[in-house]
Amino acid sequence: MQIYMFFSKILKPLFFGLFVIFYTPSFSQTFKNDSVKLFVDQSIDLIKTNAVDTSKIEIIKSGLYSKGQNLDQISELAPLYAEVFELLGDHHGGLKYKDKTYGWNKAPGVDNAYLKTRLKSETTVVSQVIGKNTGYIRIPGNSDFAFKKVDSIANDITTHINEINSTKIKAWIIDLRTNTGGNMYPILLGLKEFIGSDNVVFGGFRNSKGTSSGQWEIKDGKMLIDGIELVRQVPLKTQIKKDIPIVVLTSCYTASAGEMTAISLIGRKNTSVIGEPTANYTTAVQGFKINADAGLNLSTDYVVDRNQKVYKSNIRPDFEILDGDNLEDLMKDKKILKALEVLKSSTRYYF
Q: Distances from the Cα of 263 to the Cαs of 145, 213, 294, in angstroms?
């Protein structure tokens, strides 16, 4: 059984490319410390075998050999892996060495000052009815990396849906603007009936070779992620109407599990994404042990949606709305207002 874990937050050199054209190193340098060479070789093997993008593996190996051969100890080598992950284009992973992480601290493409100040306080699910017939639920990120809270998180989402759902609800807004990541399993389970009905494959993973390495589906009423059945304890009191209009809200802080949740709904009938381009953590990350003190977290797979679109970068919304957020008064929130406009125009029975 293979578990994919998603982390909320934790990588341009041009001259290297020119260098390799004219010179291919033999990698026969003598290392000052054999343990440093062993560490480099083990990490290179893990990257070559598992990373989703290995196009610059020779540049990475050349750099580590060149800079590592005169080092006295591994602690001096570890900081070099920040550049390794930048060359891998992997800001979702990193080298874990003792109590530190060395990765690519990629600067965000955009910023949202208002939401940034709200992230620390946005720790619980929020739900309400907007107007007379629009259900609204805001789902934050979580820290359930050890898979100990799958039931409680999924049940909490479903409980909030039950509190506002009724036959009067004609459309839904699923707000992922403050979902910075965590464990996607309980979020998908809580939103199961929104994602689809029986016999739908709503997403999955593709490895570096472009072959399927995991599948998300609903089959015979059961949600299966990579073959693992997810069971929710709290049932819906009122069923979600099939193909009910949905708007998914995103921000530049929607990351990792938040992005996976958005992708699980993309391609669904009557579904739009509104907001900001997401944070670009759309890879599956797996951990690989090097020794007792170190390991690599590598992006090993890209995510695909139900239409088999591969996400090698962030999610671009159908309607881009930058800033204008107001979580205290949703009727003054520009993304909410655009969502209501889209919902009104997309269905005859909405209002």
A: 20, 17, 32
Do residues 201 and 216 touch, judged by C-beta distance below 8 A? yes
User: Domains in the chain, please, with CATH?
Assistant: 15-102 (no CATH), 113-285+300-346 (3.90.226.10)
184's enclosing H/E stretch is helix 184-190
Confidence band, pLDDT 50/70/90 cuts, at residue 30: confident
Residue 31: closest CA among 81, 66, 55, 61: 66
Structure-token match 């080092």, residue found = 71
Three-point CA angle 89, 297, 144, nearest 5°: 115
Tokens of 81: 């892996």
Asked if residues 169 and 130 have their Cβ atoms less than 8 Å apart, the reply is no
CA-to-CA distance for 153 and 257, rounded, in angstroms? 13
Mean pLDDT of 79-96: 96
Q: If you average pLDDT over residues 210-218, what whole number do you get?
A: 93
Q: Which residue has the tokens 């494959």?
A: 201
Give residue-wise pLDDT tens across range 287-338.
999 999 999 999 999 999 999 999 999 999 999 999 999 999 999 999 999 9
Altogether, the residues listed in the chain come to a count of 351
Q: Residue 237: helix, strand or coil by DSSP?
A: coil
Mean pLDDT confidence for 3-26: 34
